[in-house]
Amino acid sequence: MRGQAAPVKKPAPKPAAKAAARRFHAIHSHGFVRVAACTPAVAVGDPGLNAAQTLALAREGHARACDLMRPALAGMNRLGGSHAQQDVLEQFFLEAAARAGQTADIRLVLERAAGRRAIPLERMAGWQSAARQYPL
Predict the structure, then answer these.
(1) Rounded Cα distance, 96 and 65, in Å
(2) What is the spatial distance between Cα 130 and Cα 136, in angstroms, rounded to a whole number?
(3) How far, CA to CA in Å, does 27 sit from each of 19, 79, 136?
(4) What is the pTM of this model?
(5) CA-closest candidate to residue 97, choices 48, 135, 59
(6) Among 7, 23, 96, 128, whose CB has the most other CB atoms within 10 angstroms?
(7) Domains contained in the chain, number
(8) What percentage of the chain's residues is helix, strand, coil (to nearest 5)?
(9) Contact (Cβ atoms closer than 8 angstroms) between residue 94 and residue 109
(10) One digit per residue, pLDDT tens: the chain, 136 residues?
(11) Which candidate, 99, 131, 129, places its Cα nearest to that of 115?
């Protein structure tokens, strides 16, 4: 192999260097947080339109949260965590569905929660108002 340089082998990275690289690429290691932001279309001097645009964006956000969380509800037991942690996630879903006005999702999570409990949801904190407003 005339005229070609032999390939140079790079030394294997040390375990400490690998750990440092993992920490560098971890989003929470730099002190930053993830933020979702949106900007409504507004008009100067029209508070009614501005409020309507802002509320529409908020509803879209709640509906999108439901879309993202819905598939996770079915496999929540595989995600791990205690029943209390799963209950909190279901209540987040319930709140997002209520704010988005998605009654089908509200009923979905209420049926799911009612099927796992011996106590009626109407008597449980966090579920009372939704269970009374949307009886099964």
Answers:
(1) 7
(2) 10
(3) 14, 21, 42
(4) 0.59
(5) 59
(6) 96
(7) 1
(8) 65, 0, 35
(9) yes
(10) 566 766 777 766 677 777 777 776 666 666 666 666 677 787 888 888 888 888 888 778 888 888 888 888 877 777 777 888 888 888 889 999 998 899 999 999 999 888 888 888 888 888 888 888 888 8
(11) 131
Look at the alpha carbons of 101, 103, 108, 111 in this order and tell me if their dihedral is positive or negative.
positive
Residue matched to tokens 């100067």: 44
Which range of residues forms the domain containing residue 29?
Answer: 15-133
- 117 occurs within a structural domain: yes
Give domain status of residue 6, yes or no.
no
Contact (Cβ atoms closer than 8 angstroms) between residue 72 and residue 79: yes
> What's the rounded Cα separation, in Å, for the pair 59 and 52?
10
How many other CB atoms sit within 10 Å of the CB of residue 66?
A: 23
Amino acid 108 reads: L
39-46: long-range contacts, CB 8 A cutoff, minimum separation 24:
none
What is the chain's length?
136
Token look-up 């205690």 returns: 82
Tokens for 118, please give them: 């011996």
Residue 27, domain member (yes or no): yes
